[in-house]
Amino acid sequence: MTAQDTPSGSTIELVALTKHYGGGSPAVDSINLRIERGSYCCLLGPSGCGKSTTLRMIAGHESATSGDILLDNRNITDLPAAERGTAMMFQSFALFPHLSALDNVAFSLKMKGVDKAQRQARAAELLERVAMGHLAQRKPAELSGGQQQRVALARALITQPRVLLLDEPLSALDPFLRIQMRAELRRWQKKLGLTFVHVTHSQEEAMALADTMVVMNHGLIEQVGSPHAVYNLPVSEFVARFMGGHNVLQTPAGKVGVRTDQIQVLPLARAQAEAATNRRAVVSDVEYQGTYVLLGLHSAGAPVSAHTTAEISVMVPEASFAAQPFAVGDEVQLAWAPEAAHPLAA
Protein backbone atom coordinates (compact mmCIF):
# COMPACT_ATOMS: atom_id res chain seq x y z
CA MET A 1 0.00 0.00 0.00
CA THR A 2 1.44 3.37 -0.97
CA ALA A 3 0.52 6.81 0.26
CA GLN A 4 -1.37 7.35 -2.98
CA ASP A 5 -3.64 4.35 -2.62
CA THR A 6 -4.27 4.63 1.13
CA PRO A 7 -8.07 4.84 1.47
CA SER A 8 -9.63 7.76 3.28
CA GLY A 9 -11.99 7.23 6.17
CA SER A 10 -15.71 6.64 6.01
CA THR A 11 -18.64 8.20 7.83
CA ILE A 12 -20.31 5.74 10.21
CA GLU A 13 -23.94 6.03 11.15
CA LEU A 14 -25.76 3.91 13.73
CA VAL A 15 -29.54 4.05 13.50
CA ALA A 16 -31.62 2.71 16.42
CA LEU A 17 -28.94 0.03 16.89
CA THR A 18 -29.96 -2.56 19.49
CA LYS A 19 -28.46 -5.74 20.90
CA HIS A 20 -30.30 -8.19 23.15
CA TYR A 21 -28.61 -11.26 24.68
CA GLY A 22 -31.82 -12.81 25.95
CA GLY A 23 -33.82 -11.74 28.99
CA GLY A 24 -33.32 -8.51 30.86
CA SER A 25 -32.25 -5.12 29.62
CA PRO A 26 -30.59 -4.81 26.20
CA ALA A 27 -26.80 -4.56 26.08
CA VAL A 28 -27.20 -1.74 23.55
CA ASP A 29 -30.53 0.07 23.60
CA SER A 30 -31.59 1.70 20.31
CA ILE A 31 -28.65 4.09 20.01
CA ASN A 32 -28.22 6.71 17.27
CA LEU A 33 -24.75 8.00 16.47
CA ARG A 34 -22.93 9.65 13.56
CA ILE A 35 -19.12 9.44 13.43
CA GLU A 36 -17.66 11.82 10.86
CA ARG A 37 -15.27 10.72 8.12
CA GLY A 38 -11.62 10.83 9.18
CA SER A 39 -12.34 11.55 12.85
CA TYR A 40 -11.07 9.83 16.00
CA CYS A 41 -14.04 8.68 18.08
CA CYS A 42 -13.76 7.15 21.55
CA LEU A 43 -16.57 5.07 23.05
CA LEU A 44 -16.20 5.52 26.79
CA GLY A 45 -17.95 4.13 29.82
CA PRO A 46 -17.77 1.64 32.71
CA SER A 47 -17.72 -2.13 32.25
CA GLY A 48 -21.03 -3.42 30.91
CA CYS A 49 -22.13 -0.09 29.42
CA GLY A 50 -22.37 -1.48 25.86
CA LYS A 51 -19.31 0.13 24.28
CA SER A 52 -17.53 -3.11 23.28
CA THR A 53 -20.77 -4.65 22.03
CA THR A 54 -21.31 -1.58 19.85
CA LEU A 55 -17.78 -1.90 18.45
CA ARG A 56 -18.24 -5.60 17.70
CA MET A 57 -21.52 -4.90 15.88
CA ILE A 58 -19.76 -2.31 13.69
CA ALA A 59 -17.03 -4.87 13.00
CA GLY A 60 -19.47 -7.63 12.13
CA HIS A 61 -18.26 -9.85 14.97
CA GLU A 62 -21.63 -9.49 16.69
CA SER A 63 -25.02 -9.45 14.98
CA ALA A 64 -27.43 -6.60 15.65
CA THR A 65 -30.83 -7.49 17.08
CA SER A 66 -32.35 -4.51 15.29
CA GLY A 67 -31.35 -1.21 13.76
CA ASP A 68 -28.84 -0.34 11.05
CA ILE A 69 -25.12 0.29 10.57
CA LEU A 70 -24.21 2.53 7.62
CA LEU A 71 -20.79 3.24 6.12
CA ASP A 72 -21.01 6.18 3.71
CA ASN A 73 -24.75 5.50 3.43
CA ARG A 74 -24.10 1.83 2.50
CA ASN A 75 -26.01 -0.50 4.81
CA ILE A 76 -23.50 -3.04 6.16
CA THR A 77 -25.63 -4.37 9.03
CA ASP A 78 -25.80 -7.92 7.72
CA LEU A 79 -22.55 -8.09 5.73
CA PRO A 80 -19.74 -10.47 6.79
CA ALA A 81 -16.88 -8.79 8.63
CA ALA A 82 -14.49 -9.16 5.67
CA GLU A 83 -16.82 -7.25 3.33
CA ARG A 84 -17.48 -4.19 5.51
CA GLY A 85 -14.41 -2.05 4.91
CA THR A 86 -13.46 -2.17 8.59
CA ALA A 87 -10.53 -3.73 10.44
CA MET A 88 -10.11 -4.52 14.13
CA MET A 89 -7.16 -4.06 16.49
CA PHE A 90 -7.71 -6.25 19.53
CA GLN A 91 -6.75 -5.61 23.14
CA SER A 92 -4.21 -8.46 23.15
CA PHE A 93 -3.00 -7.57 19.61
CA ALA A 94 -3.77 -11.28 18.78
CA LEU A 95 -0.52 -11.85 16.91
CA PHE A 96 0.37 -15.42 15.92
CA PRO A 97 3.30 -16.35 18.21
CA HIS A 98 4.89 -18.76 15.70
CA LEU A 99 4.94 -16.26 12.81
CA SER A 100 7.38 -13.43 12.17
CA ALA A 101 6.18 -9.84 12.17
CA LEU A 102 6.24 -9.92 8.37
CA ASP A 103 4.12 -13.07 8.15
CA ASN A 104 1.71 -11.79 10.80
CA VAL A 105 1.06 -8.69 8.71
CA ALA A 106 0.77 -10.69 5.48
CA PHE A 107 -1.51 -13.37 6.94
CA SER A 108 -4.87 -11.97 5.83
CA LEU A 109 -3.64 -11.66 2.25
CA LYS A 110 -2.47 -15.27 2.40
CA MET A 111 -6.01 -16.27 3.37
CA LYS A 112 -7.28 -14.36 0.33
CA GLY A 113 -4.96 -16.28 -1.97
CA VAL A 114 -2.54 -13.45 -2.78
CA ASP A 115 0.78 -14.93 -3.95
CA LYS A 116 3.68 -14.96 -1.51
CA ALA A 117 5.91 -12.39 -3.21
CA GLN A 118 3.10 -9.83 -3.52
CA ARG A 119 1.76 -10.22 0.01
CA GLN A 120 5.21 -10.08 1.57
CA ALA A 121 6.10 -6.98 -0.44
CA ARG A 122 2.96 -5.21 0.79
CA ALA A 123 3.59 -6.39 4.37
CA ALA A 124 7.19 -5.17 4.23
CA GLU A 125 6.06 -1.74 2.99
CA LEU A 126 3.57 -1.40 5.83
CA LEU A 127 6.14 -2.45 8.42
CA GLU A 128 8.41 0.27 7.07
CA ARG A 129 5.59 2.79 7.44
CA VAL A 130 5.20 1.95 11.13
CA ALA A 131 8.99 1.98 11.67
CA MET A 132 9.18 -1.80 12.10
CA GLY A 133 10.89 -2.83 8.85
CA HIS A 134 14.17 -3.62 10.61
CA LEU A 135 12.37 -6.11 12.89
CA ALA A 136 10.34 -7.86 10.19
CA GLN A 137 11.76 -11.32 10.94
CA ARG A 138 11.26 -11.19 14.70
CA LYS A 139 8.50 -13.18 16.36
CA PRO A 140 6.06 -11.44 18.78
CA ALA A 141 7.85 -12.74 21.90
CA GLU A 142 10.99 -10.94 20.71
CA LEU A 143 9.18 -7.59 20.47
CA SER A 144 8.23 -5.04 23.12
CA GLY A 145 4.59 -4.19 23.78
CA GLY A 146 4.86 -1.02 21.72
CA GLN A 147 6.51 -2.88 18.83
CA GLN A 148 3.77 -5.52 18.92
CA GLN A 149 1.18 -2.76 18.70
CA ARG A 150 2.83 -1.38 15.57
CA VAL A 151 2.79 -4.83 13.98
CA ALA A 152 -0.91 -5.16 14.87
CA LEU A 153 -1.56 -1.76 13.30
CA ALA A 154 0.27 -2.76 10.10
CA ARG A 155 -1.70 -6.02 9.97
CA ALA A 156 -4.98 -4.12 10.28
CA LEU A 157 -3.98 -1.67 7.55
CA ILE A 158 -3.02 -4.30 4.96
CA THR A 159 -6.69 -4.92 4.13
CA GLN A 160 -6.99 -1.20 3.23
CA PRO A 161 -9.88 -0.51 5.63
CA ARG A 162 -11.79 2.75 5.70
CA VAL A 163 -12.53 2.37 9.41
CA LEU A 164 -10.15 1.05 12.07
CA LEU A 165 -11.80 -0.34 15.19
CA LEU A 166 -9.71 -0.51 18.37
CA ASP A 167 -10.82 -2.59 21.35
CA GLU A 168 -8.94 -1.19 24.39
CA PRO A 169 -5.62 -1.46 22.55
CA LEU A 170 -3.58 0.26 25.27
CA SER A 171 -4.90 -1.45 28.40
CA ALA A 172 -2.22 -4.19 28.43
CA LEU A 173 0.66 -1.69 28.32
CA ASP A 174 2.50 -0.18 31.28
CA PRO A 175 1.58 3.46 32.11
CA PHE A 176 4.64 5.07 30.49
CA LEU A 177 4.29 3.08 27.26
CA ARG A 178 0.54 3.71 27.23
CA ILE A 179 1.12 7.47 27.05
CA GLN A 180 3.75 7.01 24.34
CA MET A 181 1.57 4.70 22.24
CA ARG A 182 -1.57 6.82 22.43
CA ALA A 183 0.47 9.66 20.92
CA GLU A 184 1.53 7.29 18.14
CA LEU A 185 -2.06 6.18 17.53
CA ARG A 186 -3.18 9.78 17.21
CA ARG A 187 -0.31 10.55 14.85
CA TRP A 188 -1.09 7.54 12.64
CA GLN A 189 -4.79 8.38 12.54
CA LYS A 190 -4.01 11.88 11.30
CA LYS A 191 -1.43 10.64 8.79
CA LEU A 192 -3.67 7.91 7.36
CA GLY A 193 -6.89 9.93 7.35
CA LEU A 194 -8.90 6.89 8.44
CA THR A 195 -11.88 6.91 10.77
CA PHE A 196 -10.82 5.45 14.13
CA VAL A 197 -13.36 4.10 16.62
CA HIS A 198 -11.63 3.32 19.91
CA VAL A 199 -13.21 1.65 22.96
CA THR A 200 -11.75 2.57 26.34
CA HIS A 201 -12.73 2.81 29.98
CA SER A 202 -10.07 5.48 30.60
CA GLN A 203 -11.31 9.07 30.69
CA GLU A 204 -7.74 10.37 30.36
CA GLU A 205 -7.11 8.23 27.28
CA ALA A 206 -10.32 9.33 25.60
CA MET A 207 -9.64 13.02 26.26
CA ALA A 208 -6.10 12.71 24.88
CA LEU A 209 -7.15 10.93 21.67
CA ALA A 210 -10.68 11.80 20.65
CA ASP A 211 -12.17 14.36 18.33
CA THR A 212 -15.51 13.00 19.54
CA MET A 213 -16.25 11.30 22.85
CA VAL A 214 -19.31 9.09 23.26
CA VAL A 215 -20.11 8.41 26.93
CA MET A 216 -22.26 5.28 27.40
CA ASN A 217 -24.14 3.91 30.39
CA HIS A 218 -26.49 0.90 30.63
CA GLY A 219 -26.61 0.48 26.86
CA LEU A 220 -27.52 4.12 26.23
CA ILE A 221 -25.56 7.13 25.03
CA GLU A 222 -25.43 9.73 27.80
CA GLN A 223 -23.47 12.41 25.92
CA VAL A 224 -21.66 13.00 22.63
CA GLY A 225 -19.23 15.87 22.16
CA SER A 226 -15.65 17.07 22.06
CA PRO A 227 -13.49 16.21 25.09
CA HIS A 228 -13.60 19.87 26.10
CA ALA A 229 -17.39 20.01 25.95
CA VAL A 230 -17.96 16.71 27.74
CA TYR A 231 -15.53 17.52 30.54
CA ASN A 232 -16.56 21.11 31.07
CA LEU A 233 -20.30 20.76 30.46
CA PRO A 234 -21.45 17.26 31.44
CA VAL A 235 -25.17 17.02 30.72
CA SER A 236 -26.02 14.51 33.46
CA GLU A 237 -25.03 13.50 36.94
CA PHE A 238 -23.62 10.22 35.56
CA VAL A 239 -21.30 11.97 33.09
CA ALA A 240 -20.11 14.45 35.74
CA ARG A 241 -19.25 11.65 38.16
CA PHE A 242 -17.77 9.32 35.54
CA MET A 243 -15.55 11.95 33.97
CA GLY A 244 -14.30 12.96 37.42
CA GLY A 245 -13.10 16.37 38.48
CA HIS A 246 -16.65 17.49 39.36
CA ASN A 247 -18.73 17.80 42.50
CA VAL A 248 -22.44 17.08 42.23
CA LEU A 249 -24.16 19.50 44.60
CA GLN A 250 -27.70 20.26 45.62
CA THR A 251 -28.40 24.00 45.65
CA PRO A 252 -31.59 26.05 45.99
CA ALA A 253 -31.62 26.20 42.19
CA GLY A 254 -31.42 22.39 41.88
CA LYS A 255 -28.70 19.82 41.16
CA VAL A 256 -25.50 21.31 39.71
CA GLY A 257 -21.99 20.28 38.81
CA VAL A 258 -19.00 22.36 39.92
CA ARG A 259 -15.45 21.50 38.88
CA THR A 260 -13.04 20.69 41.70
CA ASP A 261 -10.63 23.39 40.52
CA GLN A 262 -13.31 26.09 40.46
CA ILE A 263 -14.15 26.05 44.16
CA GLN A 264 -12.31 28.41 46.47
CA VAL A 265 -11.50 27.35 50.05
CA LEU A 266 -11.44 30.25 52.49
CA PRO A 267 -10.51 30.34 56.18
CA LEU A 268 -13.68 30.76 58.18
CA ALA A 269 -12.62 34.05 59.82
CA ARG A 270 -11.81 35.58 56.44
CA ALA A 271 -14.84 34.04 54.76
CA GLN A 272 -17.27 35.71 57.14
CA ALA A 273 -16.18 39.02 55.66
CA GLU A 274 -16.63 37.78 52.10
CA ALA A 275 -19.88 38.45 50.27
CA ALA A 276 -19.70 35.58 47.80
CA THR A 277 -19.42 32.60 50.15
CA ASN A 278 -21.66 29.63 49.43
CA ARG A 279 -21.17 26.82 51.92
CA ARG A 280 -19.44 26.01 55.20
CA ALA A 281 -17.41 22.78 55.40
CA VAL A 282 -14.90 20.83 57.48
CA VAL A 283 -11.64 19.49 55.99
CA SER A 284 -11.71 15.67 56.16
CA ASP A 285 -8.70 14.74 54.01
CA VAL A 286 -5.55 16.36 52.61
CA GLU A 287 -3.65 14.70 49.73
CA TYR A 288 -0.50 16.15 48.21
CA GLN A 289 -0.51 15.54 44.42
CA GLY A 290 2.54 17.52 43.33
CA THR A 291 1.23 20.49 41.37
CA TYR A 292 -1.88 20.65 43.54
CA VAL A 293 -3.28 19.53 46.87
CA LEU A 294 -6.58 17.64 46.85
CA LEU A 295 -8.81 18.52 49.79
CA GLY A 296 -11.67 16.32 50.87
CA LEU A 297 -14.35 18.26 52.72
CA HIS A 298 -17.57 17.45 54.51
CA SER A 299 -20.14 20.08 53.73
CA ALA A 300 -21.77 20.96 57.04
CA GLY A 301 -25.51 21.32 56.80
CA ALA A 302 -25.57 20.71 53.06
CA PRO A 303 -28.74 19.18 51.66
CA VAL A 304 -28.12 15.51 50.89
CA SER A 305 -30.28 13.35 48.63
CA ALA A 306 -30.02 9.88 47.13
CA HIS A 307 -28.04 11.44 44.28
CA THR A 308 -25.81 13.90 46.13
CA THR A 309 -23.53 13.60 49.13
CA ALA A 310 -22.10 16.07 51.59
CA GLU A 311 -18.57 15.15 50.46
CA ILE A 312 -16.82 17.73 48.29
CA SER A 313 -13.40 17.61 46.61
CA VAL A 314 -11.36 20.71 45.85
CA MET A 315 -8.09 21.02 43.92
CA VAL A 316 -5.93 23.75 45.47
CA PRO A 317 -2.81 24.84 43.54
CA GLU A 318 0.37 23.91 45.41
CA ALA A 319 1.47 27.56 45.76
CA SER A 320 -1.94 28.62 47.10
CA PHE A 321 -1.93 25.80 49.65
CA ALA A 322 1.59 26.71 50.75
CA ALA A 323 0.44 30.30 51.33
CA GLN A 324 -2.72 29.20 53.16
CA PRO A 325 -2.43 25.58 54.38
CA PHE A 326 -5.38 23.62 55.76
CA ALA A 327 -5.42 20.59 58.05
CA VAL A 328 -7.96 17.88 58.80
CA GLY A 329 -10.59 19.29 61.14
CA ASP A 330 -10.31 22.90 59.97
CA GLU A 331 -13.60 24.70 59.46
CA VAL A 332 -13.65 26.57 56.16
CA GLN A 333 -16.00 28.31 53.81
CA LEU A 334 -16.40 27.25 50.17
CA ALA A 335 -17.13 29.73 47.40
CA TRP A 336 -17.61 29.49 43.66
CA ALA A 337 -18.69 31.87 40.94
CA PRO A 338 -22.30 31.45 39.77
CA GLU A 339 -21.11 30.68 36.22
CA ALA A 340 -18.97 27.79 37.55
CA ALA A 341 -22.12 25.80 38.42
CA HIS A 342 -24.04 24.20 35.57
CA PRO A 343 -27.32 22.25 35.87
CA LEU A 344 -27.31 18.46 35.63
CA ALA A 345 -30.01 16.03 34.62
CA ALA A 346 -30.56 13.20 37.09
TrEMBL record:
One Pfam family this sequence matches: TOBE_2
Entry GO MF terms: ATP binding; ATP hydrolysis activity; transmembrane transporter activity
SMART domains on file: AAA
UniProt keyword annotations, A-Z: ATP-binding, Cell membrane, Membrane, Nucleotide-binding, Transport
Gene3D superfamilies: P-loop containing nucleotide triphosphate hydrolases
One Gene Ontology term, aspect cellular component: ATP-binding cassette (ABC) transporter complex
Any Gene Ontology biological process: quaternary ammonium group transport
Ranges of residues in domain ABC transporter: 12-243
Name of the protein described by the UniProt record: Putative spermidine/putrescine transport system ATP-binding protein
Originating species: Acidovorax temperans
